[in-house]
Amino acid sequence: MAKSNDRKGDRGGDRSKGRPDDRSKDRYADREDVLDDAWAALDDGDPEESLRLIKRLSSDDPSRSLLEAAARCLTNDLGGARRAFDRARSLGMPSDDPDSLWTEGELLLREWRIADAQASFQTLAESERSAGVLERLSFCAELLGDAAKGATLMEEASALDPESAPPIPHLSAEEFDQVLHEAIGDLPDEFRRAVDAVRLVVEPFPTRELARQGDPAEVAPDILGLFTGASLLDGEHEMTAGPPPTIHVFQRNLERTCIDHDELREQIRITLYHELGHFLGFDEEGVDRMGLG
Would you say residue 18 lies in a domain? Predict the structure, then answer.
């Protein structure tokens, strides 16, 4: 499984601005220090650090539960994220709190409740119309089939913050296929032969139906690629008894996660090789060790 789209930016504000990058225990004088660093850890893509930090907060602090929900979303623990979010609300977290709205939108996206996620981000945009929020609204619009609205929202995000929300690069279907075939041609012979035994499907986005076929927590709407079916290690019987082995590559998600065409072409190759590694029978760590990640 290739990673999800990480181009979405932050929640609309930098809570840690002006703070030193020091999360040692000696510097936590008050609750706000913990909160700021826990959110900063999430923005840095480190949910484990955020979960460690919030242990300093009271168990009846709604902000602790909200941060736990956001962190568990990033670790694919959607059940734990939903329980933590509901607990935050029951402890008094206001429904219009910006961090609460952002976390709710992200959780609803991961639960494939796209229209509900869009409503949460829209409510947030009414008070904080940041590039990060507009990007998420753009993504929701595209998932719901409104490409024109998605493009308009992304243009607004780029105008607000061109550094964190640059224009999305795009390849035609023919150009995208060419990059894939060039990547296949560059593989060693043994890996190239393996490609002949697997279906390669290019789609704009994953679907709710695809998520239902496996573990929904592993099939986020912004995932870049996915392998489904039996691997070579499962044997010929498993490969013929079930759905055919298939590598799914999600073009629009790949485009949305990249800042220019060079990065896009490279990410296409990385995603293809990553999913090919899963077809060969490797787990995430094995894929990385084989140089296919």
Answer: no
